Amino acid sequence: MSVSFNPRHLAQFIREEEFAAIYPQVEAAHAQLEAKTGPGNDFLGWMYLPRDYDKEEFARIKAAAARIREDSDVLIVAGIGGSYLGARAVIEAVKGQYHNDTEPGVKIYFCGNSISPTYLNSIIKVCKGKRFSINVISKSGTTTETSLAFRVLRKLLEDEVGVEEANKRIYATTDRARGTLKQLADSQGWPTFVVPDDVGGRYSVLSAVGLLPIAAAGIDIDELMQGAADSMERFSQLSPDNDAYKYAAARNILYRKGKSVEILECYEPDFTMMNEWYKQLFGESEGKDNKGLFPASCIFSTDLHSMGQFIQEGARIMFETIVDVKKPAEDLYLEPLEGNFDGLNFLAGQNMSIVNRKAMEGTILAHTDGGVPQLLIDVDDLSAYNVGYLIYFFWRACACSGYLLAVNPFNQPGVESYKKNMFALLGKPGYENLTAELEAKLK
Ligand code: PA5
């Protein structure tokens, strides 16, 4: 099985009867999703997207990606949140964190995901003198971080190659019909791709939002979608054996027992951005109405040397969900060393993945002894197919989990608060009344 939930280490924390007791609520959540009667039901476009996606646009995405790979040394992807994390997560999981150094062809960099001038200057340095294209991604078309980075890079592109050529090198992914970015794109003749109306940012990686950068990175998006489609077939079925729902049930049972933090963990550093994607998916979906598990993440064994102490012996507020990648993209055979000066010959004569696995097994046992529940998600490998599979697994689990928590898993009203204050402090027209009030608070 490509992806499965493995409750092997949970027995001392959750009894079978507890799974049985929460199951009627899982059934209710499933019914709400399928009948589209729950809160946020206008944002359920992700549910059958791996089957019902726009095939004509999919072909255009592939053609645009092929063109970018042919005419560009660098692709700059400008976007934030749901318009950023998924694409980067899939690219790094499948191609590796150092794909720009290890893979031939176009280099992919992300910007518009902060307001750091230092970061943007680095991106400018990366682009200067190179043949570069830009994919600007914003559903609203008005997100400050993205718009700011895009205006700077568009100017750089126009200065380097002229307006006419620049217009052939800008790809806009935005709302089908509305918004300033859509208007601008149409007026300049940029190719445009659609963020579907009924798909929220954190559920958008398998739309053009993620697919264009992912395809430009040379990843087989047919494989990615096939994995997601097979996952959709499996995890859309109501059953006590539905692993996505079982995972959702387990995290809610633990939440109700006072565990307030979930740490998603993986022993593959290439999973780092998948962790970030998961944090947005679950954090924005569940963290509202003063409720929700706080989604945290670690890469092990790296973070065992920083967070390990707390997890082993600190406040007992968390459980861990380990994404167990069964097969690394590349293994490394450990040769015996003459003289054994580092004392590591006991590790030699086997693949390094075995050492990584023993570290994982030892940590699971130690943390279980420390009273931290261990959930496992088994994944065959980080191929495009299995990453697509995993994405849909998390989507289903998250939607079900949100309904179990009795929140609307598809809105994010809290994200607006910082924007309002930032605009007032920057003197944006229309925010004058708030400016004085906030400045007084900062004195
Ligand atoms: O999940 C969300 O809705 C957010 O994270 C958005 O994706 C993010 O704020 C970017 O929005 P936009 O695509 O409108 O620029």
Question: Can you tell me about this structure?
Answer:
The protein is of the alpha/beta class and 443 residues long. The protein folds into 2 domains: 3-37 and 232-404, Rossmann fold (3-Layer(aba) Sandwich), CATH 3.40.50; 49-219, Glucose-6-phosphate isomerase like protein, domain 1 (Rossmann fold, 3-Layer(aba) Sandwich). Helix content is 49%, strand content 13%. It has 18 helices and 12 strands. It has helices at 16-35, 49-52, 55-71, 85-95, 99-102, 117-127, 144-161, 163-167, 180-188, 208-216, 221-235, 243-256, 272-286, 308-313, 352-369, 384-404, 416-426, 432-442, and strands at residues 3-6, 74-78, 107-111, 132-138, 170-174, 192-194, 261-266, 294-299, 318-325, 333-334, 350-351, 374-379. The model has no long low-confidence stretch (mean pLDDT 97). 5-phosphoarabinonic acid is lined by residues 80-83, 138-140, 143, 146, 200-202, 284, 412.
